[in-house]
Specification:
The structure is a single chain. By secondary structure, the chain is α+β, with helices and mostly antiparallel strands. The chain folds into two domains: 36 residues; 150 residues, Calycin beta-barrel core domain (Lipocalin). The protein is 18% helix and 51% strand. It has a ten-stranded antiparallel beta barrel with strand order 1-2-3-4-5-6-7-8-9-10. A hairpin with a 5-residue loop joins strand 9 and strand 10. The longest helix has 27 residues. The radius of gyration is 22 Å and the shape is globular. The chain starts with 6 loop residues before the first helix and ends with a strand.
Length: 193
Amino acid sequence: MSHREHPGRAALGTRAALVAGAAAFLAAGLYAVAQEPAKPTAEHEALALSEGTWDASVEISMGAPGTPPQVSKGVETNHMCCGGLWMISEFKSNPGSAPFEGYGLTGFEPSKKKYVATWVDSDLTTPMTSEGTYDAKTRTLTMRGSMTSRGKTLQWRNVEVWKDDDTRQFTTYQRGPDGKESPSLSITYTRRK
């Protein structure tokens, strides 16, 4: 029996045809649902306010309470993509012996009425995902998330407060084993002119 006559080859051909047919069916169905392209909402426009380059003053709290924070400088660059629906953030710094880089993707999910975000960086092998809300009166974005990394479950709350149009204060609060939150990261962002 030649390789062309092998029964597995016929089965693969049938599977390929089924996958192609299913993909075409799904694409047609999605097209029918989304004939109108997605358009940015007021919530997406609020994200766009942080477009540009920002100088960052970073303080990381490590160790026992009362231990002085690790201080470093960084740069964050933000830009909207995908027709104004998503914000891409790039963060770079050199806090210690090795350079640090991180990338974020943030958007607004109208069906949930929440902001959604994913973050990856050079210290993580698991992406961080979070969701939350923006309070326009206090100019505060609050995001909550959890993840399991290196066998430990981490929970956090990120709070970003706009002090003015050119200054943002970002604080991460982590939940400890006792269930209490404490600040672990603080970043003051100043817009580059």
